Amino acid sequence: MSTALAFALPPALEAAEPPEARGLARDQVRLMVARDGAPLVHARFRELPRFLRPGDLLVVNESATLPAALKATRDGGAVVELNLSTPEPPRGDEASRWIVELRRDGARFRGGRRGDRLALEGGGSAELVAPYLSAGRLWIARLDLPAPLLPYLEAHGAPIRYSHQPRDWPLGYHQTLFARVPGSAEMPSAGRPFTPRVIAGLDVAPLLLHTGVSSQERGERPYPERFAVPESTAARVNATRAAGGRVIAVGTTVTRALETVAAPDGTVTAGAGWTSLTITSERGVRAVDGLITGWHEPDASHLLLLEAVAGRALVERSYAAAVASGYRWHEFGDSHLLLRNA
Predict the structure, then answer these.
(1) Is 181 strand, coil or helix?
(2) Alpha helical stretches, state H, 34-158
(3) Which of 88, 93, 128, 91 lies closest to 112, judged by CA?
(4) Which fold has domain 69-156?
(5) What secondary structure letter does DSSP report for 117?
(6) Alpha-carbon gap, residue 29 to 170, rounded angstroms
(7) CA-CA distance, 341 to 35, in Å (whole number)?
(8) Which residues of the chain form CATH 3.40.1780.10?
């Protein structure tokens, strides 16, 4: 199995803020267009339609971001942040057991212990039941809330924030144009630069993948996430491929969902449930011909997925150019269109 890229990310590129805070529209972020054997193109996201062809299909994620960060107080008074990730697989009981991450001062909090009870605002509480998987970063937690989950989060939660963000931003800044079904711990950020002006006239099909927390440690694989690919989207993907069009995934989340239900010949069927698929260059992609995505940290597992779509050489070339040209990283940053060769 190949390893993720190693590159130096200048500190100045790590601090990302929404383009709106810089007086720009969402679709004015930069867009790099990369295809093997062709020069890299530097553009603005609002120019995306000129890099697509008639018959291309964009597949987008309709998951909406939850205010999934909760203030929690440990016995003794220490305050930490409890970040909800996903319901415990395969239960899906959004009112009780969730996979969570504890953080404090922008870093992972390592002091959690089995059986710890954390007081939450509004009379809620959480109990750490057991570590989740083997990395030691995540916990299964039993939530005891005074209200159903979504109203409780609306009243007491906030968007998850990491140290690269200079300040808190309202939940609306963490939603995409396509957000319809609440469920993601963090924004499916590849869709953020889309505006009605960009999407007008483009062929678009929706699916769902609810993202968990993205703060994986170095070398950590993606863990199970909830997804749903509807019949209508599967049919449009298959029709696009049969007609010679390209299927462009808006985000690694869309790629993971589509490839979960793709046969070896690229045919997609409807499906829903939990996906544990890890996409690498060795596994490759079957249904996806291109990918719109943001810019990922060194050694992030997402880079292996990018290699599966476009090949390691093109991804390396793109990332070297992005660092040299001052592209912005993270969820409010710039964008990247990778296209496979036929």
Answers:
(1) strand
(2) 149-156
(3) 128
(4) Thrombin, subunit H (2.40.10)
(5) E
(6) 19
(7) 7
(8) 11-65+168-339
Q: How far is CA 229 from CA 147, 180, 232, 286, in A?
A: 30, 15, 8, 15
Contacts of 287 (CB under 8 A, 6+ apart): 237, 241, 247, 258, 259, 262, 266, 267, 268
Q: Do residues 15 and 22 make contact, with C-beta atoms less than 8 angstroms apart?
A: no
Distance CA 21, CA 11 (A): 20
How far is CA 64 from each of CA 26, 29, 171, 237, 308, rounded to the nearest angstrom? 17, 21, 10, 23, 27
d(CA 165, CA 163): 5
With CA atoms as reference, report the closest residue to 246 among 145, 151, 140, 338: 338
- Could you tell me the two tokens for 40? 């890299």
Averaged pLDDT for residues 220-227: 86
SS3 assignment, position 267: coil
**% of the chain surpassing 90 pLDDT:** 75
β-partners of residue 33 are 41, 337
Burial class for 172, CB neighbours closer than 10 Å (0-12, 13-18, 19+): exposed
Q: Which 3 state secondary structure label does DSSP give 10? A: coil
Is 307 buried (19+), middle (13-18) or exposed (0-12) by CB count in 10 A? buried
Q: How far apart are alpha carbons 333 and 329 in whole angstroms?
A: 5
Cα atoms in the Cβ-side hemisphere of radius 13 Å centred on 146: 10
Residues 136, 329: Cα–Cα separation, whole Å: 27
Measured distance CA(218)–CA(4) in Å, rounded: 10
The CATH number of the structural domain formed by 11-65+168-339 is 3.40.1780.10
Angle of helix 302-310 versus helix 312-324 axis, rounded to 10: 120
pLDDT tens across 76-135, in order?
Answer: 889 999 999 999 987 655 558 999 999 998 788 988 999 999 999 999 999 999 999 866
- Tokens in use for 217? 């440690």
Tokens representing residue 281 in the block: 């260059």
